[in-house]
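Please go through this protein, sequence plus structure tokens, and consider how the sequence yields the tokens. Keep your notes short.
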Amino acid sequence: MLESRSAVYKMINSDVDGDRTIRKWPAPYASDKTPYHERDFSGVVRRVCAAQPLLPRISKVIVLGDVAVGKTSLVNRFCHKSFDSNYKATIGVDFEVERFDVLGVPFNLQIWDTAGQERFKCIAASYYRGANVIMIVFDLGSLMSLHHCQQWLAEANRSNNGPHHIFLVGTKRDLLSNQVYEIVEKKALEISRRMKAELWAVSARTGDGVAELFARITALAFNASVLREVTSLRLEPITLGTDLIRLNRETKKTRTKNRGLPKCANCQNQV
């Protein structure tokens, strides 16, 4: 395997390409085609990231969809900036890692490209667990692949009980005329709303929309990751910053002080 294609190499490499550096909130494909209406990183997230260096973060993206809809081509266009017109079916699952710098924090996006063939479903399904982003891919020129998207989402949800973002991505946009695309888009928009997914249309051949799609995925996943950590530490927004990695001192002092106190009135009388 080439060093530049190694997942381990990308995770430990400190160099980040310019298009992998995110400071501003990426826009959706269209404002009326997304259930995620944040217009910027959370103020809490920005304060935490600005206060002190944070440890690198990782989020997992699973890419699902029918066979030959262009899942692998989409991933290769983003990760390796290449397109191979010779179709080769994915066997089981392929794995890629892309390194980002988000608000000055190292962020690794794990991309799991799964096989669309029926005989590999049982293998691929074992990799669905723990996904932070579920990307369902369909061919804009195949309404059948679009109608199967809800089934793919249902299968992914069986292994993911936690919160995750959902993207419905139509590929091969370059092969459709604008008139045909408008018809397909209406049907795709109806299905995306049922799935509560953000709708995108991209072309792996030309690269149109691919970088923007993954930047959007990265920002949403990163924002959610930091917010989950803040919530788990039970810190008030006003105390964020240098307090992120320590307990609330006032709470700790109170607990220490109360250790020596009797637990009830009867106990106090006995003392």
About this structure: Residues 235-252, 265-271 have pLDDT under 50 and may be disordered. The chain is about 40% helix and 20% strand. The CA atoms of residues 57 and 242 lie 18 Å apart. The radius of gyration is 23 Å.
